[in-house]
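Help needed: design a sequence for this.
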């Protein structure tokens, strides 16, 4: 008897409160990176026509949504948070199937969206401005926040629910409407998030989702005349192009891009703790985090011993399908990622010592997935390509150093400035490094990953353009604008900086 064909679920764009097919009728298959024989779903291959429709819907909804009091907007977000909690496991399963990260990490991704939704809802009664004394008598001075308008959000595949929540929830609480384009590799998780907002009672047109590729759907979102703000998370190369397009049109642009993060391990460090942190930082999410600990700068006095502990721990990591609770490291996202990572491993073999791993796993249970062994290079020079360029895979470079100042110099020697860390028992060393490291995030006795939603997230140098997501103060500064207000009740024309006020 012939095997029955598996029915593939088809998804649509969400425009103006309706789930609609793409204008061109074209669809894309979303494959499970752990098993490419499985089609997770079929999604719209949208174009500028779909973007135009979504932007029109967001424009139409903007005046009504701006008029909704912020505490009432917050009630919708709070309901969304409750629904997310109820469906956490289902959404985590979906995420692992489409992105590959192991289930415990997928659950963490959904939890981050839950945390961000509840946290942002709490700001509905705290969109604070401030009052200040006027320099003129009988005059009141204050400032308030107001919505920016229509926002376009472009999000990556590695955190397909957490990062959209970082952008969507602050934008919504501030009274903006938006169009979001998720990464073409992971649209389902963002669709799940949008469906939750729909169920929670978000009015039609306030949130719109358009699935598709960067050139076909993302680019029109950055250039459309009606878009006031573009928020992008992804590669530095793409982010630079987004910034150029936004600048030409006079749009606000928020960028969060690459990283080449460092853990500095001093001779007084707890080496077991440092090795555990390095394993988690380097190989968590298969190294596919902008905050991944891709460089380990280790004091020469403990270098050999640390490498032994790191190697021993790395050898125990189980690589496979993230839906298996016993698996530690899942696949990378797609064939393009495999090719890039293997290319860097080849480069690394000419620059340093390949100490562990370095090959693609392509047989047995790994035959139909994008699996790469956890890879360790040792005796890496600070200026080597594998120590300078973002690989975005399970590859770590171990670099020897002679002391704290040299470690800091090496740590700061890359073009990025996202996250850094030090392992030491000396509080003075910790504070010295904390002050000298030119990164947006710094950890003591922990890996470079694990940001929490109530602190600002972002970096310096080529990592971004100065904006920070996460914490409400920094997020609100992205998604709202200040309005200064002066109320003169003196009954006469007063000229600030000109009239001489008598004391």
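Sure. Designed sequence:
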């Amino acid at each position: 008897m012939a095997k029955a064909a598996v029915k593939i679920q088809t998804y649509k764009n969400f425009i103006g409160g309706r789930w609609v097919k793409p204008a061109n009728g074209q669809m894309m298959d979303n494959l499970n990176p752990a098993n490419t024989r499985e089609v997770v779903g079929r999604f719209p291959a949208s174009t500028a026509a779909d973007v135009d429709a979504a932007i029109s819907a967001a424009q139409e909804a903007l005046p009504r949504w701006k008029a909704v009091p912020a505490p009432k907007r917050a009630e919708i977000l709070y309901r969304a948070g409750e629904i997310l909690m109820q469906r956490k496991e289902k959404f985590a399963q979906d995420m692992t199937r489409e992105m590959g990260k192991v289930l415990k990490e997928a659950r963490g991704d959904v939890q981050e969206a839950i945390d961000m939704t509840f946290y942002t809802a709490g700001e509905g009664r705290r969109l604070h401005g401030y009052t200040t004394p006027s320099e003129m008598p009988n005059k009141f001075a204050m400032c308030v926040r107001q919505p920016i308008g229509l926002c376009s959000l472009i999000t990556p595949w590695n955190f397909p629910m957490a990062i959209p929540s970082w952008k969507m929830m602050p934008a919504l609480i501030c009274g903006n409407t938006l169009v979001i384009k998720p990464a073409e590799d992971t649209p389902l998780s963002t669709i799940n998030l949008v469906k939750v907002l729909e169920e929670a009672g978000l009015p039609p047109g306030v949130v719109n989702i358009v699935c598709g590729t960067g050139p076909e759907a993302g680019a029109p979102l950055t250039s459309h005349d009606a878009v006031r703000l573009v928020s992008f998370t992804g590669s530095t190369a793409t982010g630079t192009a987004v910034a150029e397009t936004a600048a030409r049109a006079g749009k606000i642009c928020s960028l969060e891009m690459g990283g080449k993060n460092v853990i500095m391990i001093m001779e007084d460090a707890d080496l077991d703790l440092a090795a555990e942190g390095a394993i988690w930082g380097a190989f968590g999410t298969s190294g596919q985090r902008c905050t991944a600990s891709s460089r380990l700068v280790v004091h020469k006095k403990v270098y050999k011993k640390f490498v032994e502990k790191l190697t021993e721990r790395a050898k125990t990591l189980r690589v496979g399908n993230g839906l298996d609770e016993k698996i530690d490291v899942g696949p990378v996202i797609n064939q393009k990622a495999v090719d890039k990572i293997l290319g860097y491993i080849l480069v690394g073999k000419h620059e340093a010592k390949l100490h562990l791993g370095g090959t693609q796993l392509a047989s047995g249970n790994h035959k139909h997935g994008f699996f790469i062994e956890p890879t360790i290079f040792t005796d890496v020079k600070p200026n080597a390509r594998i120590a300078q360029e973002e690989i975005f895979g399970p590859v770590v470079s171990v670099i020897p150093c002679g002391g704290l100042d040299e470690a800091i110099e090496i740590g700061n020697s890359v073009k990025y400035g996202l996250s850094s860390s030090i392992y030491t028992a000396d509080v003075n060393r910790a504070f010295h490094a904390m002050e000298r490291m030119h990164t947006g995030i710094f950890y003591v006795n922990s890996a470079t990953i694990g940001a929490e939603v109530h602190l600002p997230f972002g970096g310096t140098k080529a990592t971004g353009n100065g904006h920070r997501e996460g914490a409400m103060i920094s997020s609100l500064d992205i998604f709202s604008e200040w309005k200064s207000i002066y109320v003169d009740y003196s009954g006469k024309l007063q000229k600030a900086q000109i009239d001489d006020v008598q004391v």
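The chain has a mean pLDDT of 96.
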